[in-house]
Amino acid sequence: MAVAHNEVPIKASKVIVLPDDVLVTHIFARLTSGELLNVQQVCKQWQRCANHPRLWVFVNFGISAETRRLSISLFGLKALTHHHQSSIRQLDLEKCDGVSDELIATIVMNCHSIERLNLADCRSITNNSLHTISRRCQSLLVLALRGCRLIDDEGLGHIALGCSKLEYLDIGFLTQVNGESFSLLGKLCHLRHLYMRNTRVSTRALLNLLAFNPPLSYLNCRNCRGLGSASLAALLASKSLRSLQRLDLRAAHVTVGWCQQLIQRAPQLQRLDVDCFASLEGFALQGYDNGWSYVLQACLDGDRDGLETNTFLAGFARGPSIACWQWEQDYGHILGHS
C-alpha cells in the first residue's frame, strides 16, 4: 500500500517477550481460573506458563471469583483436573451450572488429595457424590454443601465416616437434613466450624452431636426451629464450650440468665448473635463491665438467605462496639489461601 507524502511510515514494533517466571509470578498469579484458561489460547509460551502447577493449587470457578454463573463441561474439567491432579488442593464450584454426580466422580478420581471443596448451591448433586467424596478424599478439611437440597443425612453419614480430618462443614439450607447423622458427625475429632442454618435439626440430634464434645469454635444454629430448651441446656453442659468462639442462635428463645451462664462457661467466646428483645438490653448493661459490649442493629438479609428483610438482632462481643452484621460466612474468607 502506497504511503502519502505527508505521512510518516509506521515501523512494526517488536513484541516484548517476558520471561516465564515474570509471567507466572507477577501476571498470571493475579488471574482467576477462568481467565487462565482463556490466556492459554494466545501463544505456546502463555499456554505453558498458564499451566504452571503453582497457579492451579487454588482452583476457583465459583460465583465469588466470576461475575456470572459458569457452565462447567464434563470434558473440560476432566482434562483440567487430570493435568493438574498433583497440584489442586482447593476447588470452588459454587453456583456453577452443570455440576452433577458424574462430574464430581471425575474430579475426585483425579484429585484425591484435594483439601477444600466448595459445592454450595450445586443443586443437582445427590448423596452419590458424597459417597464418592468420602471414599476418595480422605484428606478433605473443608466441605461446603449449602443449598444442595437433594442431600440428606445418609450422604452426611458417608462424609463423617470417610473424611475423618474434616474441620469445616457447611450444611445450611439442606431441608432434608434432620440430624440423624449427627451422632457420626460428633465423632469428627477435628470439627471446629459447623454451619447448619435453616435445617430441620432436632433437639435430639444436637444432643447426639454434643455428646462427643467436638472442638467447635464456630456453631451456627440460626433459624433451626426444631431446637428447644433442652438443646440450650445441653449446650451449656457441653465441653465444646471451652473452644467456642462464635455462636449464632437467632430464632432461638434464649433468656438473660442463659446468656450470662454461657459467657461464664465459654472463656474463648468472642461473639454471640441472638434475636433482639427488650429484656436483653438490661443484660447488656450488666455485661459491659466485664468487657462485653452490646450492639443493636437492623440488618438487611441477602437474597440467598431467603428470610424476611429488616431483621432486628442483638450482638454481644468482647471489647469495643463492632458492626453487628457482616458477611463473615463468605466462602472467599473460609476457603482463602490461609
What is the strand and helix layout of this fold?
Layout: H1 20-27, H2 33-39, H3 44-50, E1 58-60, H4 74-83, E2 90-92, H5 101-110, E3 116-118, H6 127-136, E4 142-144, H7 153-162, E5 168-170, H8 182-185, E6 193-195, H9 203-210, E7 218-220, H10 229-237, E8 246-248, H11 256-265, E9 271-275, H12 279-288, E10 292-299, E11 311-318, H13 331-334
Parallel strand pairs: 1-2, 2-3, 3-4, 4-5, 5-6, 6-7, 7-8, 8-9
Antiparallel strand pairs: 9-11, 10-11
Helix pairs in contact: 1-3, 4-5, 5-6, 6-7, 9-10
Structural overview:
The protein is an alpha/beta fold. Helix content is 32%, strand content 13%. It is built from 13 helices and eleven strands. It has helices spanning 20-27, 33-39, 44-50, 74-83, 101-110, 127-136, 153-162, 182-185, 203-210, 229-237, 256-265, 279-288, 331-334, and strands at residues 58-60, 90-92, 116-118, 142-144, 168-170, 193-195, 218-220, 246-248, 271-275, 292-299, 311-318. It has an eleven-stranded mixed beta sheet with strand order 1-2-3-4-5-6-7-8-9-11-10, with helices on one face. The longest helix is centred in the first third of the chain and has 10 residues, at 74-83. Residues 284-289 and 296-338 have low confidence and may be disordered.
Mean pLDDT: 75
Widest beta sheet: strand line-up: 1-2-3-4-5-6-7-8-9-11-10
- Return the string of H and E elements: HHHEHEHEHEHEHEHEHEHEHEEH
* Tally of helical runs: 13
In the predicted model, the low-confidence regions spanning at least 5 consecutive residues are 284-289, 296-338
The radius of gyration over CA amounts to: 24 Å
Structure classification: alpha/beta
**Which band does the percent of strand residues land in?**
5-15%
Question: Any idea what the shape is?
Answer: elongated
How many beta-strand runs?
Answer: 11
State the helical fraction: 25-40%
Give the N-to-C terminal Cα separation: 58 Å
Biggest β-sheet description: 11 strands, mixed
